[in-house]
Amino acid sequence: MEKIGLTTTVPVEVIIAASYIPVDLNNIFVMSKDYKEYIDIAERDGFPKSMCAWIKGLYGACLKNNIKKIVGVMEGDCSNTKVLIEVLKSKGIEVYPFSFPHTHKEEDVKIEIDKFMNLFKVNLNQVENVRKRLNKIRILAKELDYLTYGESKVTGFENHVHQVSFSDFNGDFNKFHNDLKDKIEKIKKRKSVIKKVRLGYIGVPPMTGDIYEFVEKLDSSFVYNEVQREFAFPRANEALDIYSQYYNYTYPYDIDFRIKDIKRQIKERKLDAIIHYTQAFCHRAVDHIILKERLNIPILNIEGDKNNRLDARTKLRLEAFIDMVGDLKKVKN
Q1: CA 214 – CA 260 distance, rounded (Å)
Q2: Closest C-alpha among 65, 66, 104, 63 to residue 84
Q3: Rounded-to-integer distance, Cα 233 and Cα 242, Å
Q4: DSSP secondary structure letters along 270-315
């Protein structure tokens, strides 16, 4: 089976039905010990220093890992993806385009998914059969998530890593299913570790993965990972078909749609505060203006760039913010 790279979460059911192995280039890039090499490859080929490190990392990961075909999301994700796709095409990479329509109408989502199925020469029955199989695994993601916020047995980092991996099921959904089942059984035997401050993480998954470990040293923990949870499609089993599943996916559509679900999670998970992570030079950073106005909860915006470790300034800001939230919680109690 041939590998096909993904620039973000897309209807992976179509790709698997077409007998390809999905490979999320984001996960290859950010989890690699040599992640800076991927950025260097892009900058040597002319990508500017002022461009988002993720885009450069995707480019380097694609070339370095000899990925010959990719799915490029042309609408509903990063505004720089179109440029990335054009450069990769010039390097001989075959591109399969996909779009999450800005209109966010179910009929328009259906049109885009039908186009995607036609590109891969698969039909709705084939795709739905794969979807039913994957949804059995997605149930485990919900269980893992509950063990995070409901029983305090899963760390924020574990929650992040396992949910973000649902974008491509680590290239082998059967193995992924078995490994996750085993992991959950072990987690259930743990004792709960309850921290003073319950945090939510919103925004794109971080370059700086050490943020999870750092906040735990401050007697706090992330019990909600917004976008990572969306990658695992927590509402997939309620969807009638693949069209409604991807219609109800919050990440690529308007911010109002995202905020409705974030507010539900704030209440359900009893969050004390939110960390909003944005990437340097990313248009999504502007979302913070709206999020700060609309979410009635303390919120701190931090920004990542090329480094995969928190810098001293960000650590100080996190420490001061969490300390403040802890004091507010004491006053309320």
Answers
A1: 29
A2: 63
A3: 11
A4: T-SEEEEEEETT-GGGGHHHHHHHH--S-EEEEEE-S-SS--HHHH
Q: Which pair of structure tokens corresponds to residue 144?
A: 């893992």
For domain 2-122, say whether CATH 3.40.50.11890 is its number. yes
* Rounded Cα distance, 37 and 317, in Å: 29
Please give the C-alpha separations between residue 2 and each of 21, 181, 257, 277, 333, in angstroms, as whole numbers: 6, 27, 36, 34, 57
Which of 261, 241, 265, 264 has its CA nearest to residue 253? 261
Asked if the model's pLDDT at residue 133 lies above 80, the reply is yes
C-alpha neighbours within 13 Å on the C-beta side of residue 182: 6
Task: Please tell me the distance from the alpha carbon of residue 225 to that of residue 141, in angstroms, as a whole number.
Answer: 12
Distance (Å, rounded) from C-alpha 145 to C-alpha 163? 9
Going from N- to C-terminal start, the domains of the chain cover 2-122, 125-332
Q: Where do the DSSP E strands lie in 20-178?
A: 20-24, 69-75, 94-99
**CATH architecture for the domain at 125-332:** 3-Layer(aba) Sandwich (3.40)
| Residues, the chain | 333
At 191 the three-state DSSP class reads coil
pTM of the full predicted structure? 0.93
The pLDDT of 274-287, averaged and rounded, is 79
Return the minimum-mean-pLDDT range out of 156-165, 241-250, 252-261. Answer: 252-261
- Each as own residue / partner, the long-range contacts of residues 244-250 (CB below 8 Å, 24 or more positions apart, any chain) are 244/106, 245/131, 246/11, 246/100, 246/109, 246/113, 247/104, 247/106, 247/109, 249/9, 249/100
DSSP string, 144-155: HHHHHHTSS-S-
Q: Summarize pLDDT for 302-314 with one digit per residue, the tens.
A: 988 878 899 999 9
